[in-house]
Design goal:
Largest sheet of chain A: 13 strands, mixed
Radius of gyration of chain A: 20 Å
Number of strands of chain B: 26
Number of strands of chain A: 21
Structural class of chain A: mainly beta
Strand content of chain B: 15-25%
Distance between the termini of chain B: 31 Å
Helix content of chain B: 25-40%
Helix content of chain A: under 10%
Strand order of the largest sheet of chain A: 5-1-6-8-9-10-11-12-13-15-21-20-17
Order of helices and strands of chain A: EEHHEEEEEEEEEEEEEEEEEEE
Strand content of chain A: 25-35%
Number of helices of chain B: 18
Largest interface: A-B, 7 and 8 residues
Distance between the termini of chain A: 49 Å
Shape of chain A: elongated
Shape of chain B: globular
Radius of gyration of chain B: 23 Å
Oligomer: heterodimer
């Protein structure tokens, strides 16, 4: 396993668009080549070395180094660096702090671990792989781009803290597990996949959903009106996710059509 | 190459120029000061930009007579679809602007993409009068292309009132004034009588069904507007978007609508200098049916949906006064946009997709919807087949024009794919295998062996669109005096292999050269020059006393508009390089008129 270390050079003003930070691009590259990768800051194109010290002492760059054997470790505050891991297909990224917006956008494989928080649009239109946020997430996690109804199609997003609004918007497949709470419109326009919220949700859960499953393990403060209760279940099993205790099961969202296929579980009591 | 001279020679190409009867003859094309000439002096030849077209196909620049590229509904299509833009970004270059948009590109990207594909002339198919300013603003910002726009009049309150009263003269005076006021090129008639009913959430479904309040029928509107069109002698005929568009079984109403104008004489009373052509460059048709694919449906519901194209084609094969454009469906993402508000609502109810609707006060309406045509869908597969049947079952290519009704059936950058299907049965069979089986089961396309030649392709993408809309006085051919718009494809007609379909599509998509007014604007898909295009519109004239009388009616009803009368017209400054075509001009005034 080759580890490439990026050390942030200090605070960043205008946010940086750094879709070049991904293992399949770094794999097999020399230090100077990585330093010379181009990122955007506003209207300017700059070398990655403007913002990061690149340390390849724990990697032996060679032509044969495969992306899946490449790790990128990012130290320092990168909460103003966007698009880290965009489109990555293999390998590993570890952020020892907080990451900026569009983390893992369209990611298809490999894994991203963030020790702090992550910005909005984490895992947008993700196709595969895993993103694990140990802090809090923001808005639009695993969702579609604005205007589209096809969000995340595969892979897994784990958030140890809370997330905000429109989590899993337009989600088609894969799963999102939130250890904490979510705010509004979690699973809006969802048509497949699983969203598990271990805490509570504010309102709009599953609005206009037509497929897939949402489970909220604590309260939904303002349930959506377009859901009809279809029964109750004890210790329901959703794939390999085991719920504990009694849950009320709903179908919806009838606001969208006459025969919706979305399923919503909410803890009783 | 001496690019700064005003002369250009395209040497040794296989030339396809149907209006001059030239079918693949190897010859040279000479262009001087932007116009085709028969020869150059030896000094001019020495300084000319020389393009070696040896072993290549040379055609007049492409002419698109029906596309949605400018105006309010086009922009609504952009605004409501951010997801259409973020993955189709075009970076700026030294000479070009950046742009984005896949099904509805930004104006700059539109101009570049059309030019890169070998097209130099594009007409906007639906301009509501109240949105004329917006339409002209977008055309003014579109680079390279020569453009014009057809004005939507089929549900206009003044037209409905005059035609109900049987006052054709006043209707003609109104149309003439409106075309001058809004700088419009032709008359478009969208779902006549039906869009007015849409204000009451209704539609009309038969040619003799009167609409609400005005109590005028689609038949009266189609006949009246076609008569007005020929009274004024406009360069193009009435352009009709038929009733019941997009509904199963609508081929009959389409055929019956085309019968309404039969017997009228096609009169082009424009005052113009005509470039030399061997064949007649004047239109024969009195009605030009838009996007025939959407009006050639059989069956009675979506369950027994099938192609009605053979029946529609049978009628068109019998007459000489009809031209259609195909509105073919090349599959993939589309944004449907039309002045037919109720048709768009039906599509919204069917698909549940994002939908926008607009009422244009006193004039018309519109709807916009996002859509993806899928090969796995039975209905879409039949639509694909119908879009090719209407081109292939109508025997005379001079009655057909290849379009995708961009971006309704598909996007204009799919034209090379559509042309490949028209030219190669293998290409059609290969696609049919990937489609739902309804594609061939519910249409006659599988049994059609016709493969269009390059000559016929030049008819349906150049000569006929230009002739149909009255632009063949300068476009769509390479006769002496024609605009120096030329496309050079890297296709050797003698070595053409119709089984190599992907290669053919790629070569049609990226011509070696696109030449506009004698200047190379695109080279193998890359934009190398960005001249400003012209904007064509008609200036029809009627008797002054009649116009005054008509205007007092207009002013009387103007209280219903939310705009003031003084703010209604489109000022001249909205047009860049305007070309006003005088029509029906009194003889004594003709002497002053020069292009």
């Amino acid at each position: 396993m080759a580890e490439i270390l990026l050390r942030s050079k200090g605070s960043i003003g205008i946010t940086v668009e750094a879709e070049v930070i991904r293992p399949d691009i770094f794999a097999g590259k020399k230090r100077e080549e990585i330093e010379g990768l181009i990122v955007w800051q506003g209207a300017r194109q700059l070398a990655l070395a403007e913002f990061f010290d690149v340390d390849v002492s724990r990697a032996r760059p060679s032509e044969e180094m495969k992306p899946e054997e490449t790790s990128i470790i990012i130290e320092g505050d990168v909460s103003r660096v966007k698009r880290i891991g965009q489109g990555m297909k293999a390998g590993r990224i570890m952020v020892c702090g907080s990451a900026g917006m569009h983390l893992g956008f369209e990611m298809a494989g490999g894994s991203i671990l963030v020790e702090g928080d992550a910005g909005a649009w984490t895992g947008m239109e993700m196709k595969g792989g895993q993103i694990h946020i140990m802090g809090n997430g923001a808005d639009h996690i695993g969702s579609s781009y604005r205007g589209s109804w096809r969000g995340m199609t595969g892979g897994e997003i784990l958030i140890d803290g809370n997330a905000r609004s429109q989590l899993g918007g337009g989600m088609v497949g894969g799963r999102i597990i939130i250890a904490g709470n979510v705010e509004n419109f979690c699973g809006i326009r969802q048509s497949g996949g699983l969203i598990l919220v271990k805490g509570s949700a504010v309102r709009g859960v599953g609005a206009e959903m037509n497929g897939g499953t949402i489970a909220v393990c604590k309260a939904i403060k303002q349930p959506s009106p377009g859901f009809v209760e279809t029964g109750r279940e004890e210790n329901a099993k959703l794939g390999d996710v085991q719920l504990e205790g009694w849950y009320a099961r709903f179908t919806g969202d009838y606001a969208l059509g006459k025969n919706p296929k979305g399923t919503l579980y909410c803890k009783e009591g | 190459m001496a690019a700064t001279t005003n002369t250009t020679i395209i040497r040794n190409g296989y030339v396809f120029d149907p209006l001059n009867g030239i079918n693949g003859d190897v010859s040279d094309i000479f262009i001087k000061d932007g116009k085709v000439v028969s020869c150059l002096s030896s000094a001019e030849e020495r300084d000319a930009t020389i393009i070696d077209a040896t072993g290549k196909t040379v055609m007049p620049g492409g002419v698109d007579s029906h596309s949605h590229v400018a105006g309010a509904k086009v922009n609504t299509g952009r605004l409501m679809r951010p997801e259409d833009h973020y993955k189709s970004v075009r970076g700026k270059t030294q000479i070009t602007h950046s742009g984005s948009g896949y099904t509805v590109p930004s104006v700059y990207k539109q101009g570049y993409d059309y030019a890169a594909m070998g097209y130099t002339t594009v007409f906007e198919a639906a301009m509501p009068p109240l949105e004329a300013r917006h339409t002209h603003e977008e055309m003014r910002s579109t680079p390279i292309l020569d453009m014009g726009a057809y004005m939507v009049l089929g549900n206009n309150w003044f037209i409905m009132r005059y035609l109900k009263e049987g006052d054709l003269e006043k209707a003609a005076a109104y149309v003439a004034w409106m075309m001058r006021t809004h700088k419009a090129y032709g008359i478009k008639c969208v779902n006549p009588a039906g869009v007015e009913n849409w204000g009451w959430a209704k539609n009309v479904h038969g040619l003799d069904e009167p609409n609400i309040h005005f109590e005028v029928t689609p038949r009266e509107l189609i006949r009246g507007l076609a008569q007005v069109n020929e009274m004024l002698g406009l360069p193009m005929s009435l352009h009709l978007h038929a009733n019941n568009l997009g509904h199963p079984g609508n081929w009959e109403i389409a055929r019956d609508s085309l019968m309404i104008t039969s017997g009228l004489d096609a009169k082009n009373k424009s005052t113009l200098e005509w470039a030399e052509t061997r064949e007649s460059a004047r239109r024969r048709q009195t009605v030009y049916l838009a996007h025939a694919q959407f009006s050639a449906y059989g069956g009675t519901s979506w369950r027994d949906f099938c192609s009605g194209a053979p029946d529609l084609a049978k009628y068109i094969n019998q007459v000489d006064d009809v031209v259609i454009d195909s509105g073919s469906v090349p599959f993939g993402p589309a944004t449907t946009m039309t002045g037919d508000g109720p048709a768009q609502h039906d599509l919204y109810m069917l698909t549940g997709q994002k939908w926008s609707n607009c009422d244009v006060e006193m004039e018309c309406g519109s709807g916009v919807l996002s859509l993806v045509y899928l090969k796995s869908s039975p209905v879409h597969s039949v639509q694909w087949a119908i879009g090719l049947e209407v081109m292939l079952l109508i025997d005379d290519p001079w009655k057909t024009i290849m379009t995708t009704d961009h971006p309704n059936g598909g996007i204009f950058t799919s034209y090379p794919q559509v042309i490949t299907w028209l030219m190669s049965k293998k290409a059609r069979d290969d696609t049919a295998k990937e489609c739902h089986k309804w594609a061939y089961d519910k249409s006659s396309l599988g049994s059609v062996d016709r493969e269009m030649s390059l000559y016929e392709i030049a008819v349906v993408t150049r000569a006929n669109p230009a002739r149909t809309i009255g632009m063949a006085y300068r476009k769509g051919h390479l006769g002496v005096g024609a605009d120096g718009d030329v496309t050079v494809y890297d296709i050797n007609p003698e070595k053409l292999n119709l089984n190599e379909t992907a290669a053919l599509t790629a070569k049609l998509a990226r011509p070696d050269y696109t030449i506009k007014d004698g200047r190379i604007v695109a080279r193998q898909g890359e934009i190398v020059a960005v001249p400003e295009g012209r904007r064509y519109y008609c200036r029809p004239y009627v008797d002054e006393a009649l116009e005054k009388e008509m205007l007092s009616d207009v002013k009387d009803w103007f209280k219903y508009y939310t705009v003031g009368f003084a703010n209604y017209p489109v000022p001249d400054k909205y047009l860049k390089n305007p070309v006003a075509i005088p029509v029906n001009k009194p003889q004594e005034a003709l002497a002053q008129v020069r292009r």
